[in-house]
């Protein structure tokens, strides 16, 4: 039972980490706690749902949904945040504006599409279990694990090894100095919104595929865990989000498997409080984008 | 001249009859959020009954619908609005037992009779003398399902429930009591939160214990999620899954597909029940909405008719008189014969049918 439970924990943790990836990037660079992130997650899942229903394969539907969510994220962020940025509003204003916006978006989507749970068409991905010794996993779960690894590597490469990444890091370090140096900070911010929205969209597709539950509020139910993972990992830290996500998943599963399923959240969140108590800045305090 | 006087008299009479104001009635249901499927079905059932009442000769009802959003606060606000602003004589709803435990005391305190059509948890009518329900409590349905499981040779059972929802928790308590009474050995009890999507830890633990059956008490979405994950984790057809009232929704097949096959659940109503009254209801509902009703629509349909009859018996729009008239209910609806006990619960469980999932849809279990 233990190997299967560890695998369960790792895979659950990977979904948390995958969800948190774009969220933490957004904060790390733009210094914005942007709660509309959950909506891009929902949107990605729905885009993939419509594409696969129209007969498009997952190989194409996944990147298309990611790009679509990214573009919508650019539009919504520009609409919501440009004014605040110009007014140099404090973090609480961003939090409230995006909170209001995301609730309106969820409710609008539910009113438009209906709140029912949908599934990607059967056969979008092979649903048969894969046996790895004593462990049973599914293709969707392996895909989530793989996507996590690939996306983290790609993000690290982008931030550290390209000119664009240098620009993003400059923006994260000091937006005013970057603007004074002649960088197009507005365009750069839009690009970060795009990347973050696309990551959310990709996460929505994969997690929707794994849990078979696509509905307008799926982003909202993921947001609590996502928020915790991002804060415990250190706001803005990509590595921190991954590690905190995996830890949260494993702790939840082991508590449920060996202590009591009723204590699952109590233990997991108590440990996170303990983390923040000893390290208020989170596991990896500073933004990776800033540090790099 | 005499003719004109007669005509005038007729006119006066007909205006007097027409002037009988429609009785204001409120409906509180979940129309937004993840559980809106229940409230939408309830509203559709109630509105169909209302259309038939309007076409018939009974007292007219002016219905105001309020969305509770599935929360306790939402339900309380809805009731306050209906009572304070619309001066309703009675309320149908709310949808969840959780909501009723919050809203019931408000309506009861103001002396407005309130009828839950889908609130199956234990203790609902203990809230007060104005709280009724037409939903058969789970305590009456689950023992019938459990007896069927025993007849199929089940000896051991694992129980799984959503611990953050009054409906699911109460269903679990009932399930545990029914399992013990049926002589089943309970191997483990596991819980989760209604919004969880991952149940792998609990299911891996259950699988290692190899129970004959797994009883699940939760709303239809988490039940579907659990069933989908049992197949991923390698549960085979030798494990019998037993659902509580939340699993009794056609949406189970739509969400979980073949993963739900074999699950059994007790139901106070079934769409394919052959009696002509039920068939007429199903046909009318289908014509109006384009799809088949579920038990929530059926319960709301009967409840609206029961309330209309009570208003006729009361002969006034006074909430107190309607409450007393409700206690004298003797209705034959799509759920079968219906009366209230002195404690305002449904009087009989004779109509319970055990259903089985097959190919994504329910059929009557063998």
Brief summary of the model shown:
Chain A is mainly α and 292 residues long.
Mean of residue pLDDT values of chain A: 87
Radius of gyration of chain B, whole Å: 22 Å
Number of strands of chain B: 14
Strand ordering within the main sheet of chain A: 1-2
Structural class by secondary-structure content of chain A: mainly alpha
Shape descriptor of chain A reads globular
Give the overall shape of chain B. Answer: globular
Number of helices of chain B: 12
Specify the structural class of chain B.
alpha/beta
Compute the separation of the termini of chain B in Å.
74 Å
* SS elements, strand count of chain A: 2
Summed up, the domain count of chain A is: 1
The largest beta-sheet of chain B arranges its strands as: 7-6-8-9-10-13-14
Indicate the radius of gyration of chain A in whole angstroms: 19 Å
Q: Find the biggest chain interface.
A: A-B, 38 and 33 residues
What does this structure look like?
The complex is a heterodimer of chains A (292) and B (366). Chain A contains twelve helices and two strands. Chain A has helices at 2-30, 37-53, 58-86, 91-113, 139-161, 163-173, 175-180, 185-211, 218-233, 238-259, 264-278, 288-291, and strands spanning 129-132, 135-138. Chain A has a two-stranded antiparallel ribbon. Chain A has one domain (2-219). Chain B contains twelve helices and 14 strands. The relative contact order of chain B is 0.13. In chain B, strand 8 (213-217), helix 8 and strand 9 form a beta-alpha-beta unit. Chain B folds into two domains: 20-136 and 275-334, Rossmann fold, CATH 3.40.50; 139-267 and 352-364, 3-Layer(aba) Sandwich (Rossmann fold). The model of chain B is unreliable at 9-19 (pLDDT under 50). In chain B, helix 3 (72-84) runs parallel beside helix 4 and helix 11 crosses helix 12 (319-327). Chain A binds chain B through residues 1, 4-5, 8-9, 11-12, 15, 107, 110-111, 114-117, 119, 122, 127, 129, 136, 138, 207, 211-213, 215, 217, 221, 252-257, 261-262, 264-265, and chain B through 32-37, 163, 190-193, 195, 197-198, 200-202, 204-205, 208, 221, 224-225, 228, 231-234, 251, 254-257.
């Amino acid at each position: 039972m233990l190997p299967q439970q560890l695998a369960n924990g790792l895979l659950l943790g990977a979904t948390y980490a995958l969800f948190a990836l774009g969220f933490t990037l957004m904060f790390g660079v733009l210094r914005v706690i942007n709660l509309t992130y959950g909506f891009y997650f929902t949107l990605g899942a729905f885009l993939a749902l419509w594409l696969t229903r129209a007969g498009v394969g997952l190989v194409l539907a996944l990147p298309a949904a990611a790009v679509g969510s990214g573009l919508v994220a650019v539009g919504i962020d520009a609409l919501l945040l440009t004014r605040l940025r110009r007014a140099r509003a404090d973090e609480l204003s961003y939090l409230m504006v995006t909170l209001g916006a995301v609730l309106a978006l969820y409710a609008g989507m539910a009113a438009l599409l209906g709140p029912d749970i949908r599934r990607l068409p059967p056969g979008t991905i092979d649903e048969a279990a894969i046996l790895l010794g004593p462990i049973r996993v599914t293709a969707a779960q392996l895909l989530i694990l793989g996507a996590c690894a690939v996306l983290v590597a790609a993000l690290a490469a982008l931030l550290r090894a390209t000119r664009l990444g240098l620009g993003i890091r400059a923006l994260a370090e000091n937006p005013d100095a970057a603007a004074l140096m002649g960088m197009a900070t507005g365009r750069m911010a839009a690009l970060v919104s795009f990347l973050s929205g696309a990551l959310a969209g990709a996460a929505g597709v994969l997690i929707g595929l794994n849990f078979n539950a696509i509905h307008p509020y799926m982003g909202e139910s993921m947001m609590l865990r996502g928020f915790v993972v991002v804060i415990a990992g250190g706001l803005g830290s990509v590595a921190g989000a991954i590690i905190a996500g995996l830890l949260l998943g494993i702790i939840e599963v082991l508590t449920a498997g060996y202590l009591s399923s009723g204590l699952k959240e109590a233990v997991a969140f108590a440990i996170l409080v303990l983390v923040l108590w000893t390290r208020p800045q989170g596991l990896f305090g500073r933004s990776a984008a800033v540090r790099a | 001249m005499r003719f004109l006087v007669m005509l005038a008299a007729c006119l006066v009479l007909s205006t007097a009859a027409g002037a009988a104001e429609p009785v204001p009635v409120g409906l509180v249901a979940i129309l937004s959020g993840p559980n809106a499927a229940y409230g939408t079905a309830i509203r559709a059932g109630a509105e169909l009954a209302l259309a038939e009442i309007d076409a018939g000769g009974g007292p007219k009802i002016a219905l105001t619908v309020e969305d509770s959003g599935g929360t306790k606060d939402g339900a309380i606000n809805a009731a306050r609005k209906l009572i304070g602003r619309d001066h309703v004589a009675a309320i149908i709803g709310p949808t969840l037992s959780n909501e009723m435990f919050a809203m019931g005391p408000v309506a009861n305190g103001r002396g407005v009779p309130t009828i839950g059509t889908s609130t199956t948890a234990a203790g609902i009518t203990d809230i007060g003398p104005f709280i009724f329900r037409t939903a058969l409590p789970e305590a009456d349905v689950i023992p019938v399902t459990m007896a069927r499981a025993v007849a199929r040779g089940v000896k051991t059972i694992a129980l799984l429930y959503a611990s953050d929802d009054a409906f699911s928790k109460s269903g679990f308590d009932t399930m545990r009591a029914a399992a013990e009474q049926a002589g089943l050995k309970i191997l483990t009890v596991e819980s989760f939160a209604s919004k969880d999507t991952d149940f792998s830890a609990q299911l891996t633990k259950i699988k290692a214990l190899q129970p004959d059956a797994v009883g699940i008490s939760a709303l239809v979405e988490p039940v579907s999620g659990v069933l989908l994950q049992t197949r991923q984790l390698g549960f085979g057809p030798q494990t019998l899954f037993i659902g509580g009232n939340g699993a009794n929704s056609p949406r189970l097949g739509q969400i979980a597909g073949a993963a739900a096959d074999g699950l059994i659940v007790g139901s106070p109503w079934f769409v394919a029940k052959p009696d002509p009254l039920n068939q007429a209801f199903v046909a009318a509902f289908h014509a109006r909405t384009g799809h088949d009703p579920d038990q929530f629509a059926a319960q709301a349909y009967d409840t609206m008719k029961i309330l209309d009859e009570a208003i006729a018996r009361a002969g006034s729009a006074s909430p107190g008189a309607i409450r007393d008239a409700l206690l004298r209910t003797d209705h034959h609806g799509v759920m079968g014969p219906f009366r209230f006990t002195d404690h305002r619960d449904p009087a009989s469980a004779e109509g319970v049918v055990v259903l089985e999932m097959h190919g994504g849809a329910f059929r009557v279990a063998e």
